[in-house]
Amino acid sequence: MAATATAGAAVRSAAAPPPRQYKLAPQSELRVEVLPDAPLRVRLVAGTTEIFGTELPPEGLVPVPPRSKIAIFTWHGATVELDGVSESEYTSDETPMVIYVNAHAILDARRAGARVAAVQGGDLEASQGPRVIVVGPTDSGKSTLCKMLLSWAAKLGWKPTYVDLDIGQGSITIPGCISATPIEKPIDIVDGIPLEMPLVYFYGHPNPSINADAYKVLMKELAKTLEKQFSGNAESRAAGMVINTMGWVEGLGYELLLNAIDTFKANVVLVLGQEKLWKMLKDAKPNIDVVKLHKSEGVVLRNSKYRQRTRSFRIKEYFYGIANDLAPHSNIVNFSDVSVYRIGGGHQAPRSALPIGAEPVADPTRLVAVNISTDMVHTVLAVSYAKEPDEIISSNVAGFIHVTDVDIQRKKLTYIAPCPGDLPSRLLIASSLTWYEA
């Protein structure tokens, strides 16, 4: 790692290299890792290419977001140009794209069949399109495959729902969330997942083991809301879901994976990069399709420190934008103007009310009022849509604020938010997510 970091620093300190072109053979790709603080742009010179299922527009220079790890793939051959500094760039003809697009074709046929069933007045099961859950160990390319499947479906006119259960990274919004959003067009190379209509439930931690039962409850709430939407929209129902999952696939992680398959009624499981997991799921879920796919050799391994930095960048992007072109708004509220709650904690019942010999058990979904203190500085709080505290666990959130100061004497809390104005709710949810702006 030290050698890599030194090499990266050397690249940043050197003058930017001149633009360079790569001629790609059919069914090959150019793999590029982008530095966090050095701009890089890509231009399609000839032919056609795509980045994770989204076509690269011809001629114009397209900025690649910092810290991205992309693969510019061509089906029929192309010439592309890179302008700027990268951490690494190389071509490869060893790619599983043909396998992935074949999987997409099968899913597309199922969507078409579900649409026909809906028109013919078929039952809910017949009119349900594929509910695809993508699983695999850490750094197996799950979120990348999800983007491809979503973009390819959207390119054909479908509007599949993307569900993100990976609270460690967060591809729809910040980490610590279970979320979903419809995908109406191929995912933008620069802007990423659209955020016009997300459904977001706040877990508040990057690791499900902190409160696994609360994680299950929030998955159930999200699934319930999506079922209501599908019941009134035949097109969305036929388009189905693509569900991204965490990379924790053993012990409790495996248990949560099985729970997710049941909760969202997944009917297709795509397993990336681990035959053992494929066999276990095939035995555990004999009535649904469990398919093993090769992972791309271009997937980059990330250690825990890198993941922690990525979480910080995701939080920063929420307030400042991917290109650092947004200006969050600072505001001050009285302690009495807001109420902060934590999900999980406290005992279900006092010892005196329990059977002899029984130990009190923590209630994973109980709401605990949190006193505002200086410990909240640098933490992220979610703004709940709930009208009353007891609705918090079943309500999605409006957005997030970052606490920058707590004045105990004056009883004032200072925070930044993405937009100006009063908060849409006085009910806030505490978390263990921190971000240090410096």
UniProtKB/TrEMBL annotation:
Residues binding ATP, per UniProt: E29, K69, D139, S140, G141, K142, S143, T144
UniProt xrefs under Pfam families: Clp1 (PF06807), CLP1_N (PF16573), CLP1_P (PF16575)
GO BP term, example: mRNA 3'-end processing
Keywords tagged on the record: ATP-binding, mRNA processing, Nucleotide-binding, Nucleus
Parts forming coiled coils: none
Family: Belongs to the Clp1 family. Clp1 subfamily.
Chief location bin: nucleus
One annotated Gene Ontology cellular component of this protein: mRNA cleavage factor complex
Region (Disordered): 1-20
Residue stretches making up the Clp1 P-loop domain: 136-321
Record's function text: Required for endonucleolytic cleavage during polyadenylation-dependent pre-mRNA 3'-end formation.
Record domain Clp1 C-terminal: where: 326-437
InterPro entries to which the protein is assigned, alphabetical: Clp1, Clp1/Grc3, Clp1_C, Clp1_C_sf, Clp1_N, Clp1_N_sf, CLP1_P, P-loop_NTPase
Record SUPFAM superfamilies: P-loop containing nucleoside triphosphate hydrolases (SSF52540)
Bias-annotated ranges (Low complexity): 1-15
Domain Clp1 N-terminal: 23-112
GO molecular function terms attached to this record: ATP binding; polynucleotide 5'-hydroxyl-kinase activity
Gene3D superfamilies per the UniProt record, alphabetical: Clp1, DNA binding domain (2.60.120.1030), P-loop containing nucleotide triphosphate hydrolases (3.40.50.300), Pre-mRNA cleavage complex subunit Clp1, C-terminal domain (2.40.30.330)
PANTHER family membership: CLEAVAGE/POLYADENYLATION FACTOR IA SUBUNIT CLP1P (PTHR12755), POLYRIBONUCLEOTIDE 5'-HYDROXYL-KINASE CLP1 (PTHR12755:SF6)
Compartments it resides in: Nucleus
Protein name: Protein CLP1 homolog
